[in-house]
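One example given next:
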Amino acid sequence: MEHRTLGNSGLRVAPIGLGCMGMSFAYGGADEAASLRVLHRAVELGVTLIDTAEVYGPYANEELVGRALKQLRGKVSIATKFGFKILPHGQGVERMAGVDSRPEHIRQAVEGSLSRLGIECIDLLYQHRVDPAVPIEDVVGAMAELVRAGKVRHLGLSEVSAATLRRAHAVHPITAVQSEYSLWSREVEADVLPACRALGIGFVPYSPLGRGFLTGQLPSSATLAPDDYRHSLPRFQPPAMAANAHMVAELQRLAAARGATAAQLALAWLLAQGTDIVPIPGARSLAHLEENVAAAQLALSGAELAAIGAAIAPASVHGARYPDTELAMVVL
């Protein structure tokens, strides 16, 4: 795969990365042996950007990634995130108790991540969510200290506004912004993505397949595990899924005409939005991983891109991407 550079940072990675959250968190039914196989196969296929976070599990995902990549460290760039207050007890999302980006917490979080990942330096460290109680200048200042200490190479922010991004970048160069971006979630195109390009910052879309919905393989929420996080999301409520189904059917029709899958078409569309974009779809099976990676070879014409973009019109999508409590934490 032809590599891409995230902004002006010099961090070169394959055009499609691997988001690891679902291997340990949020989607239910995690299979560690299968996840290890996926991680190893990803490296074999040329994937170089591996994305995790301390809150995934919590902590379990970083441990999994660390075990899987211990002998492959030189072949990958590892990204992780801090920024949530994590309770000592409970299961999964129950342990998330708001945000915490106090400088002392950042330092503590990074030490924990380094230990769990079994590495000496994090390639790309993101603030997971903006903390309204801590000025972004103080947050990035603390992150920059970790760069100078040799514990972090590049800095990133997740779900941040254009205004906050500019303030952050003035303190220390930001390498990448990670936010939700897909055919049915294009809010970043208004302000955040243009700001990234003006500042020379790469963009890493998470949930590029709409948390699985854009694959056409989720006919109803009844197919999800009982503890699947998507049950709490407005777009995955039965009325919204039913109302949005016709758009995915059209995407599948277009994909069939190209001899591809809906997932591959959605990823190829995203890659065509700019060479500074590196999506990180999740995968918990070898088949899905290989399907996603193959999308990097799918070249689309201008007419095809227009048709795909029209098939999933964001203005027609039913349901918000997060419930109100979580929407309050994004794009601050």
Summary: The chain is about 35% helix and 15% strand.
